[in-house]
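ARCHIVE CARD
Drawer: 12
Card no.: 0347
Subject: one protein chain, sequence and derived structure
Cross-reference: see card 0346
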Amino acid sequence: MLEKGNKKIINAWAFYDWANSSYPLVITTAIFPLFYEATTGSMVNGVKTDLVTLFGRTFHNTELYDYTIALSFLIVSIFTPLLSGIADYSGSKRKFMQFFCYLGSLSCASLYFFDQSHLGLSLFTIMLTSVGFWGSLVFYNAFLPEIAEPADHDRVSAKGYSLGYIGSSILLVLNLIAIQVFHMDPKWSFVSVAIWWMGFAQITFARLPNNVYGRKPEGNVIFKGFRELYKVWKELKEISRLKRYLASFFIYSMGVQTVMIIAVPFASKEIFPPDQKGNLIIAVLIIQFLGVGGSILFSRLSKWIGNIKALGVSIFIWIGICIGTYLWVFTPTGFYVVAALVGLVMGGIQSLSRSTYSKLLPETQDHASYFSFYDVCEKIGIAIGTLSFGLIEGLTGGMRNSILTLIAFFVVGFILLLTIPKSKAIEV
C-alpha cells in the first residue's frame, strides 16, 4: 500500500502539472493559435480571408480548429473509460499515463511540420496532441485520492495547478524572448513544449508507483477492465452527491474549458486590431500569474465556507465575466481587465473541481475508473462547448454571439450545484 501524505510523492505528482501545462498555455492558448490564424486562410479578390477548404467544404479557420478539438475530446471520452477500467484491474495507471504523455508530447513536436497545403494531416496532428494531453490527465487525476488524505485534497490539487501556471509561464516567456529577440521560428516553440513536457514528466514517473494496491491481473484484461468499469458505474449511480456534482460539473466545465480554448482566437478576431495582436500575450501572462494566486485563494476559501459554496462563488464570478465581456469589452484595455478576473477564477475552479470530486468518492481502489467518469463529463462538455462556439461563429460570421452559450452553461451549472446535498467531506 502507498503511504498517503508522503511529501516526495506528492511533490512528484504535482510536478506533472509543471510538465504538461506547457501544452495548454503555449499550444492551446498563446503561440499556436496566433501561428494557426496567421498561416491559414485564403485569398479572395486579392484580400486574405480566414476561409479554408477541407474535403471540398469551406470553413472559417477557427471554426475548423474548434471541430478538430471537439473530435479529440470525443475520442478521449470513448476510449479512456475502458482503459481506466483496465488500469484499475491491472494496477497500471502510471503506464497508461506515460503512454498518453508520450503520445501528446511527440505529436506536439510534429506540429513543427504544420502546413496548410496538407491541412487534413496537420489537423490530425493537432487532434493527437490533444488526445495525449487530456488522456494522460485521466490517470494523473486518479492518483490524488491515493497520495493524499481528504483533508489535504484542496491544498494538494491547488499545488499542482500553481506549479502548472508557474512552469508553463516560464517556458512561454523563454519562447517569446527567443522569438522576439533572437528571431526564432515560432515552430520551434512547439518542439520546446514537447521536450519540456516529456522531460519534466520523468520526475513524476520516477516516484509515482505503478501498482498501488498490488493487483495481479489474470485472464482477458480487456473484458475484466470493462467489468471493472461497469461495477464502478453501478456504484456511482447509487451515490446522490456524486451524481449531482457530476451533472453540475458537466455543464459549467463546458464554459470554463471553452474559454481556455477560444480566448485568444476570440480576442484576436473581435478585439485586437492587426497591429496589436502581439500584445495578446500580455493578457495570457496576466491569466497565468494570477492563476497561481487564484488556486491558493480558492483553496483557502473552501476551508472557510466549504467546497460547494466556494465553487458557487467562482461560477457566479464567471457569469459576471461573460456578461461583461459580451456587453462592454471591445478594446484591448477592457480585455486585460477580463484576463485578470479570468486568471483569479480559472485556477480556483479547476483546482476545486478536481479536489471536490476526489473528496466525494467512496472508499475504493478503482480511482482511475471513477475519475474516468469525471473526465468524460469534462471532455464531452468541452466538445459540446467548442462545437457550439464553432457552429455559432459559422452561422453568424462572428464569435461574440457565442459568448451567450457560455453564459447559459455557467447559469445552468450554478443552479445544478445548488441541488447537491450537504456532505461532511466537502463542508467545513
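Annotation on reverse: Residues 424-428 have pLDDT under 50 and may be disordered. The CA atoms of residues 334 and 343 lie 14 Å apart.
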